[in-house]
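Case 277 in the screening queue. Each case pairs one protein sequence with one candidate compound; here the compound is S-adenosylmethionine. For every case the pipeline is the same: read the inputs, emit a complex structure as tokens, and attach any notable structural observations.

Predict complex for case 277.
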Amino acid sequence: MTKDTTEIEIHLLLEALYRKYGYDFRQYSEAHIRRRLMNRLALCGLQTISEMQSRVLHDREFAAVLLQDLSITVTEMFRDAEFYRAIRQSVVPILKTYSFVKIWHAGCSTGQEAYSMAILLQEEGLYERTTMYATDFNQRALDQAREGIYANEQMKEYTANYQRSGGREAFSDYYTSNYNMAIMEASLKKNIVWAHHNLVTDSVFAEVHMIMCRNVLIYFNSDLQSKVQHLFRDSLTHGGILCLGSKESLRFSGLAEEYIELDKVQKIFKKKYPGGE
Ligand SMILES: C[S@@+](CC[C@H](N)C(=O)[O-])C[C@H]1O[C@@H](n2cnc3c(N)ncnc32)[C@H](O)[C@@H]1O
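Case 277 output:
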């Protein structure tokens, strides 16, 4: 089978990025990578991906730009409000049976997902006994997540999401407005540990009762999705909860039998105990 020239160039560029900087995009979805690289090609005025490869190898700052391009950090608070409603209904009663709770947000981006969960857990009386590990491989996104400062203009949309998700308070209680910025309340941050973790190249992060990895696997090819799903299976306690994004599944992992589907639409799964439910 012959490959088109661009496909060969992309392959070589990803190899260069990996060998020189350790960031491994070789098993990301081809369509996603090609779209992002072509976009950058048009922006930087180079003619071919091979020219970009040379630049990546000799210009660390250009490599950093490419890293941002390939890591899509789009996120929002209470993204998919129905998902958070389902968490309140089906998952919170399970978490309430534990004396302490560990939750891993894998691919947390700029932190909105973790703050949403911190708010929900506070309202459910669970936050004090919870440790949240929020990880990403994008250091710039993690730095913003740790700060917890967002543009005020986003708060209108986040408030609407929060209300639709079953939120019980005034959303404005959870942040302080300062000029055009919204600063998340310190009480939401105190049990969140922000950390660098690469799902492709790093191993099990911690043993946890719940993993949220939403809208991340969608950028991986099926082999990589399967590899990461095995990492999640090995990180979860028996009875632990796995939450995926609306377009993601356990399909390529061969692990579906090891989980019970708690909510088919919202992609919430519970890892079975040995030999049964
Ligand atoms: C679209 S955002 C999803 C954020 C959030 N989970 C949500 O659903 O709103 C995808 C995140 O996955 C992160 N990501 C992509 N590949 C990763 C990897 N190999 N290891 C860790 N994080 C990764 C990106 O940096 C980005 O922050």
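Case 277 observations:
- The first helix runs from residue 5 to 21.
- The radius of gyration is 20 Å.
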